[in-house]
Amino acid sequence: MADKSYRVIGKSVERVDARAKVTGEALFPGDINLPGQAYMKVLFAGRPHAIVRAIDTSAAEALPGVLAVFTAKDVPVNEYGLIMNDQPVLCGPGSSKPYTDRVRFVGDQVALVVAESEEIAARGRDLIRVDYEDLPVVTDVLQAMDAGAGTSGASLLHPDKGSNIFGHYRIRKGDVDSAFAAADVVVEHEYHTPAQEHAFLQPEAGIAYIDEAGRVTVQVAGQWTHEDQEQIAHALDLPLEQVRVIYPAIGGAFGGREDMSVQIILALAAWRLHQRGIHRPVKIIWSREESIIGHHKRHPYLLRAKWGANKEGKVVAARVEVIADGGAYAYTTTKVMGNATLMCTGPYEIPNVSVDSYAVYTNNLPNGAFRGFGGPQGAFEAEMQMNHLAEALGIDPVELRRRNLLVEGAHLSVGTPLPKGVSIGAVVDRCVEALGQSQAAKSSQERSTRPEALRGSGFACAFKNVGFSFGAPEQCMATIELHGGAEIQKAILHHAGAEVGQGTHSAMRQFAAETLGIPLEHVELVVSDTAVTDNSGSVSASRMTFMAGNAIKGACELALEKWQREERPAIATYQYRPPKTTPYDPQTGKCEPNFAYGYVAQAVTLEVDRETGEIHLLEVISANDVGQAINPQQVQGQIEGGVVQAAGYAVLENFIQQDGVVLTDKLSTYLIPTVQDIPERVHALILEYADPIGPYGARGMGEMPFLPLAPAIMAAVHAATGVWFHEFPLTPERVLRGLGKL
Residue 495: in which H helix or E strand, if any? Predict the structure, then answer.
């Protein structure tokens, strides 16, 4: 277990941002106002697939109070994208980039109106007339995959690519066909996982202006300041140093702020106005409806699985087809799918594996990063297959898992061993022990006090990478300044990592104070500003605690060496680079996928109302190996928050698109969990098996509590009703249909 002798590591110290947020002093992007600011509104396409023949902006430009209208012709380099530049900044004629004259989903941005007030900007937007030539709409991934093959006539969303399939990974390990022939039991099923809206607290907002150094400056909520800076600079065809990105307080992210939303268009508007001699800041705040159609969602997946096992309960073969609906643009789809490709065989050592995964363009909303990053979809299929194998073999589902769990030195489906520090077995044992002690679970086969309700318990487990994977460049930088005389009186930490509500800035202070041996209050933070902080990478992939901790620890150690040489101030910068990862081999999939992992197991006890179809979550036990809890209270909050968000995904949040049109574009139609929907009790089990290369043994854990909850809920529903569900969310309507009552 992790060392507990630290001074501030492992202590639930007060969050550095707590007081400002609870008192309302913290400024979120929508709270920032500057003298003389103008306001911007976006004209969205409102249709899923069409060529923009012409845009008439004359009426908008003539409206009193309108300062400018911008269209595609005003964008110097009309493309952007986190992984590939396949999306126009503005759709329409006038760009040199091919095929930027078409819209591919309802949230494509067509024009920008900047005006003296938000109301005038909205009126101007509504005066713009666009001549569209509608194109065929394809929203089904299987139909989309046929495009270009001459089999269905489905349209190509990106004609220059020749196919709607824009990513394909394969894994080939062992001899799957022979293993299936020798298996005693084979189970084969198809699964569907849904889209999910991030529903972060504050919709997209920001303000842009030209700063005193002549830089295009954008204050906005995001997850990677330097990536935002690079994409803005590319689209505006500006040197990198002429663009500045600052993150104020951020009202949640969950992966939803990894890709561009308002960053580029804010910079474009402020810069173009400046060129016209109008030196005014530009502000935008999206409505919730604009936010829901304007940013990406969690990927819906189609997963087809065939698994085989022998009578002793050893899984001998797995064949899985993974199809990810990328929506209109790539966003992070290929990276998300890379994780799902690995996770679809679960935390199990299987000697014979065949996986094919596909990323597919459709006219649905783009899909991208969301907490778990492909892990929840892969875990759902893997854990459901384990449940079905257990049922077919007559073996307890937990026992079946124990017989197949990854152990130290075990080989993954990609043919390489896991990094050291494998703890999934201990995590499973601890979760099962807590389930055995649960009063709710002890009566899991009993009816509740309500005769219409049946109670059941279920179990699932998972693992997930910490940090970027599959060869993606990975690093994190930190700078520390030590000031004082005989003793260090002040340490100023420069770090770009975003605080998205997870407490990372507090953890950063703890890392610095621990390494320097100074009181926590002597550490000051300079954060999330490309002008004064070096690239730290994205706040995603459960990486920031791990990566920032190592970078800060390294910088502090270098600064201490300078301090001991009596340098005053002692200033040091450190770049942490973890062990290298490698991409999938195109034929076999063999690779070194990740340098570290987190492990989680969850047990659920619930009731199903057989008359209404409603599911009532009584208890969720979530056992998480965090390596070392830097701030235990924050870790507990992460676990509880992850469980609630995953419960919404599994039971409640039904995101509906029909023919590319979003039907649930409000939080009154897209229902997120309220206090009445969350589990009555979340038992957060914090386990600490130190990661060999984690800072003070810490692993990442932000995504882990999300991963196995959906299949654990399905297992509990089956225990209560005898019915297996292979699709969710388990809305009352879907439950009643499964029970044969609709």
Answer: strand 488-495
CA dist., res. 682 & res. 471, Å (int): 36
**Alpha carbon of 690 to those of 4, 13, 347, 541, 695: distances in Å?**
11, 21, 19, 19, 9
Q: Is residue 165 part of a domain?
A: no
Helices (H), 297-412: 333-343, 375-393, 397-402
Q: How confident is the model at residue 443 (pLDDT cuts 50, 70, 90)?
A: low
Give the domain-ending residue among 253, 285, 317. Answer: 285
Question: Among residues 231, 628, 634, which one has the least CA distance to residue 423?
Answer: 628
Q: The domain spanning residue 565 has which CATH number?
A: 3.30.365.10
Over residues 213-264, the pLDDT tens digits come to 999 999 999 999 999 999 999 999 999 999 999 999 999 999 999 999 999 9
Last-in-domain residue among 546, 576, 606:
576
Indicate if the pLDDT at residue 183 is higher than 90: yes
pLDDT band for position 4 (cuts 50, 70, 90): low
Q: Confirm if 306 and 389 have CB atoms less than 8 A apart.
A: no
716: CB partners within 8 A, 6+ apart: 444, 456, 457, 458, 604, 605, 606
Question: How far lies 648's CA from each of 80, 196, 654, 670, 728, in Å?
Answer: 32, 9, 9, 11, 11
Q: What pLDDT does 662 receive?
A: 98
Domain count of the fold of the chain: 3
The helix or strand, by DSSP H or E, that contains position 729, with its residue range, turns out to be none
How far apart (Å, rounded) are the C-alpha atoms in residues 739 and 191? Answer: 18
Q: Could you please report the per-residue DSSP string of 249-288?
A: -----TTTTSS-SSHHHHHHHHHHHHHTT----EEEE--H
For position 5, what pLDDT does the model report?
Answer: 75
User: CA separation (Å) from 564 to 559, 560, 561?
Assistant: 9, 6, 5
In a domain, 67, yes or no: yes
% the chain with pLDDT above 70: 98
Q: Are 248 and 32 in contact (CB under 8 A)?
A: yes
Judged on CB neighbours under 10 Å (0-12, 13-18, 19+), 676 is exposed
**pLDDT of residue 151 exceeding 80:** no
Q: Look at residue 150 in the predicted model and tell me its pLDDT.
A: 47
**pLDDT value for 148:** 58
For 94-122, how does the pLDDT look when each residue is reduced to its tens digit (9 = 90+)? 999 999 999 999 999 999 999 999 999 99
Instruction: State the DSSP code for 74.
Output: G
Cα dihedral angle (367, 727, 467, 83), rounded to 10 degrees?
-20
Q: What is the pLDDT of residue 155?
A: 86
Model pLDDT, residue 448 = 56
**What torsion, rounded to 10 degrees, do the Cα atoms 459, 597, 297, 607 define?**
10
pLDDT of 2 over the 60 cut: no
Distances, alpha carbon 301 to alpha carbons 306, 323, 375, 574, in Å: 16, 6, 11, 40
In this structure, the answer to whether residues 416 and 337 fall within a common structural domain is yes
Beta strands in 174-213 (DSSP E): 185-193, 205-210
577: alpha, beta or left? (left if phi > 0; alpha if psi -120 to 50): beta
Residue whose pair of structure tokens reads 């306001």 in the numeric block: 39
Same domain? 431 vs 461: yes
List all residues 6 or more positions away from 99 whose beta carbon is below 8 Å from its beta carbon: 158, 159, 160
Report in angstroms the alpha-carbon separations of 248 from 30, 258, 498, 524, 526.
10, 16, 9, 16, 12
Residue 342 shares a structural domain with residue 448? yes
Predicted local confidence at residue 452, as pLDDT:
83
d(CA 498, CA 391): 45
Same domain, 83 and 219: yes
pLDDT for 615-671, tens place per residue? 999 999 999 999 999 999 999 999 999 999 999 999 999 999 999 999 999 999 999
The span from the CA of 476 to the CA of 577, in Å, is: 7
Give residue 273's domain range.
Answer: 32-135+204-285
Is residue 63 assigned to a domain? yes
Q: How many CB atoms lie within 10 A of CB 47?
A: 19
